Prior knowledge:
Shape: flat
Radius of gyration: 29 Å
Number of strands: 16
Pfam family, one: Sigma54_activat
Strand content: 5-15%
CATH superfamily of the largest domain: P-loop containing nucleotide triphosphate hydrolases
GO molecular function: ATP binding; DNA binding
Keywords: ATP-binding, DNA-binding, Nucleotide-binding, Phosphoprotein, Transcription, Transcription regulation
InterPro entries: AAA+_ATPase, AAA_lid_NorR, CheY-like_superfamily, Homeodomain-like_sf, P-loop_NTPase, Sig_transdc_resp-reg_receiver, Sigma_54_int, Sigma_54_int_dom_ATP-bd_1
Strand order of the largest sheet: 2-1-3-4-5
CATH class of the largest domain: Alpha Beta
GO biological process, one term: regulation of DNA-templated transcription
CATH architecture of the largest domain: 3-Layer(aba) Sandwich
Helix content: 40-55%
Amino acid sequence: MTKASEQRHILIADDDPGIRGLLCEVFDEEGYLTEPAEHGGEVLAKMTKKHPYDLLIMDVRMPGQDGLTVLEQLRKNGITTPVIMMTAHGTSSTAIRAIQIGAYDYVIKPFDVEEVTLVVKRLFDHQQLASKVRELEAKSFDPRDKMIGNSPAMQEIYKQIGRVAHTDATVLITGETGTGKEVLANLIHVNSARRNGPMVKVNCAALPESLLESELFGHEKGAFTGAMAQRKGRFELAHKGSIFLDEIGEMTLSTQKKLLRILQEREFERVGGTTTVRVDVRVIAATNRDLEAEVRAGTFREDLYYRLNVITLYLPALRQRTGDIPLLAEFFLDKYRYSPSSPPARISEDAMERLNNYDWPGNVRQLEHEIERAVILSRGNVITSEHMSLVPSSRSALQVDIAARLREQSTLDELLADVERLALQEALVQHDDDLKAAARSLGLSEAEFQKRQKKYTS
């Protein structure tokens, strides 16, 4: 018996004393607190007296007021207790109507007791996920600045935020597109001493070089055709706050040189001006590129890279923290309600399995769009795999891993070396460290096996 189940109070309503008694007995044995009701009027009386019920399990057909009428009345009275309906017509309009007016789920009579207990467990698991989302939301200063996830990788990110946010150190955020680099930058800002100052954002990839310099540093009147008045740049606007330079790897070498001076001196001149402007700004930059490789290729300044790389935070891809998918899905279900007054949609088990098994090349951003689309197609009710655009992957685990490594710009030699190293290790495991047998299984001599193995142990 768990502590959680001891705190759950379930009202079970059915005019059949056999079913009512059976369910009370089953859930009592599970450690829940149960209470019976024989008809709709009794349900309304018990619920409106503010009994602390965590769940109502109710039959559709009952004498007097039927289950659907009772459910409608409860919702009109503002009672949001989750309701599971029992019906002998699970494919009829009655069952569909039950979901539309606010039932959490329904079970079809005659039912398997294990099926009912599974539905109840799923409901309470859903509530725990929603509670975790609210806890994570409460930790942020602003509702736009949230990172959702309890995986070890995200816990490490939270620790790093705690260590660097209160400083003025320049931060470089790396990771694939869609992982949430802008959200992380927001979190650093709102948890810093600069939280009351501005947070100015610049997408370096969205502006051509001719405009980027003016956007960053501003310009004087008459500096170029169309410059009808003096204009402050983003760095000036970010004074006493933070500036977020997204996709900094797209910046040209010419603009990189001018940015380097700001990082070093915290001063610059507007385009077309001679007056030096000093600013107090914390710089946070982000990129999905490998800047070290860009430095080697000569497309990114080495001195600027080291100036930016004071603190580096790596945001893992969604496929590297799949345990966070249910929590993220719950957050987006709440965010994209079908209407402001409707409860969050729910995800069926087959749909959740598809979410968990997908590769997510677009990361969290792709998941968010997928949930938003599914909520619309399901009209805010139960989301099934039919409401999803995801195509189940027929690729092997090795193919998925290779695709991920290619997105991280691994070379062919690096990929082949990893495959060889893993093959040598696995051969030894499968043959209980019998070197001769392991070598034979790979078509190698013992000497050749040891030679290849030595490359990865030296």
